[in-house]
Amino acid sequence: MTADLFPPSYPGLTLLPGFARDNEAALLAAVEDVVAAAPLRQVATPGGKAMSVHMSNCGAMGWISDRHGYRYSAVDPLTARNWPAMTEVFRELAARAALAAGYADFAPDACLVNLYRPSTRMTLHQDRDEAGFTAPIVSVSLGLPAVFLWGGAARADKAARIELLSGDVVVWGGVARLNFHGVMPLRDGVHPLAGPKRINLTFRKAL
Length: 207
Ligand code: SIN
Ligand code: FE2
Description:
The chain is α+β, with helices and mostly antiparallel strands. It is built from three helices and 14 strands. The strands form four sheets. It has a six-stranded antiparallel beta sheet, with helices on one face. Strands 8-13-10-11 form a four-stranded antiparallel beta sheet, with no helix packed on it. The longest helix has 14 residues, at 24-37. Fe (ii) ion binds at residues 125, 127, 181.
């Protein structure tokens, strides 16, 4: 099929299908450690609406949201402790994926853990709470498949739909660093390793 011979390409977005497939079990085990120390929770947007994903973080900084806005914090507001450290398994994978996309020396200080259950979605948004935008975003999918929405620089730009499977990694940066993106409501299903859920790890350089 032509679609397979000539997959669409998106400036600034690198798709790395199956890049983390060999690490799926180790990554899911590491997620369990993170959420044992920093429990998954639903956060509110500044507008006061609960986001449908459940979130946690690991690394020196964690992304948080409440009525005061979106920002990074070294302290987990739920536990009043620092976020759990970013395991070497995570850092090594994120750096290797960034390198494969053309970014040498990616040293993330934040890893956002997002839990999606069937019908959970993520509306179009930009990742723009970081102090700078030279470093890319590295996003790792685990568990149930999802349809990733890849938009443009403006919210109204038409978004491409990209199927992401467990072990797929996407990296965006450069001209696309501030592109809008999101996730369609998760379909029902049960993943053999992860069960009825999807985990997304988003690695960022926050500071
Ligand atoms: C995000 O944009 O924070 C999450 C993207 C995803 O779940 O694939
Ligand atoms: Fe995002």
